[in-house]
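User: I'm curious whether this sequence folds into something compact or stays loose and floppy. Could you predict its structure so I can see for myself?
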Amino acid sequence: MALRPQRPQSRAEQLAERQSAERDVFMREVDDELRRDEMTGLFRRFGIPVAALVLAGLLGLGGWLWWQHSRTQAMAAHAEEMVRALDRVEAGHLDAANKELTPLVADAKDGSGAVARLMQAGIAIQQNRREEAIRIFAEVSEDASAPKPLRDLATIRQVTTAFDAMEPQAVIDKLKPLAVPGNPWFGSAGELVGLAYLKQGRQDLAGPVFAGIARDKQAPESLRRRARQMAGVLGVDAIDDAESVAGVADAQVAAPDAGVAQ
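Assistant: Here's the prediction. I'll summarize afterward.
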């Protein structure tokens, strides 16, 4: 089957096709120019704040990474200094150990600073500088930035060191929050509270406290044995009547006016 020959375009048709192509090119150029104008306007309007935000984020990330790295290095350095100080103490070189601890006390912002101060207080006790030791223990006890277990330990060490010079009621008031069955420091704090009751002549309060310590499985065995003996001397059974003794000890220690001398 023969194909029909195409008719040559007329001059008018050629002009119309050329004008249509030129319009398409012009419209594309206009559209591209509008897009460029929009992007330029958006950049002028939001580019600087967005760039500033991205830059701030990068700087913040870099600062955080640097802080983490510096903190890790500082903690490693503090650990090395602490080990050196412990070696000095074990060797009996207390002055040298105290000097090793001084930078930690001044610079360390984590728990190692509080540990260093507790070690300095221990050195002061060994060197018969009891007032200085009591002062350091009190500072750590009242330091809100120190970890709570270290603050509690400092409180107990402060009272232990100053016990003979303290009024019995002051001991009871100071340690009452810790001398509670179930508290990790109940054994140590409770023993001091029980002794304070004895100084007040309150055997009826001291006996249940010692019995409660004797029944506390978290307390060291030497402390439990000592408390059991004291409870027996005071006429309290620390072996057979466990639950009632522990309940009485809790109630007596927590009572607001339990330590008032009769």
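Summary: Confidence is low (pLDDT under 50) at residues 241-246, 258-262. Residues 56-165 form a domain with the Serine Threonine Protein Phosphatase 5, Tetratricopeptide repeat fold (CATH 1.25.40.10).
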